Amino acid sequence: MSEFDAEIDTSGLNCPLPVLKARKALNEMAAGQRLHLIVTDPGANKDIPAFCKMTGNSLVETSEANGKIHFILEKGASNA
Amino acid sequence: MPKKLAIIASKGTLDGAYPPFLLASTAAALGFEAKIFFTFYGLQLLNKELSLKVSPLGNPAMPMPVPVPSIVQVLPGLQGFATWMMKRKLKKKGVASVEQLREICIESGVELIACQMTVDLFDFKHEDFVDGISSGGAATFLEFASEADITLYI
């Protein structure tokens, strides 16, 4: 897994909390920093890419292990 | 220009409370400007203390642990039981509470607008509502909705 600057574990939480928690964490971060987001909600496989697409943040990496999805998001410059 | 989401919330049940707050909070997280216009029973969603209920009565699609005939659903306590069951299920599945989603809406700048006509109609008081909400009428909503990318009636 790539390096990251912050991490949130949303295991057990359902839609839309992983997206809302990712938003909150990214608000505290600087452009170019990376967030490791851990999610168990299977809907996140579509929701997190959609969130990134709409907000100008990049989805750098996605992997799945032991029922958990691991996303690495990189904060974009636009701060949308 | 941010995208805009305009929602009319007309339902005051526990299940009816989810779509407006859930979509508006997520829209705000996606960078939208979002406004919810609360009218008729939807005004109940603005009360400081929420006591939202869900009933299987008149709602044949609501999953129940055992089949409950309509004639039994009118009995006292059945609605309370159904509400308790639904809340327990929501919690168990890690779904946010309505209060939590509403709080996120307020924190993230979603504008909550109480329909003044229905506030007067039901003799509701603004002081019973959560802080920071505004009020307005049909033209207020239509002005925003006319520029919105997404408009929903819930």
From TrEMBL, chain B:
Transmembrane parts of this sequence: 21-46, 66-84
Domain of life of the organism encoding this protein: Bacteria
UniProt keyword annotations, A-Z: Membrane, Transmembrane, Transmembrane helix
NCBIfam families (UniProt xref): SulfCarrDsrE2
Protein name: DsrE/DsrF-like family
Organism: Methylophaga thiooxydans DMS010
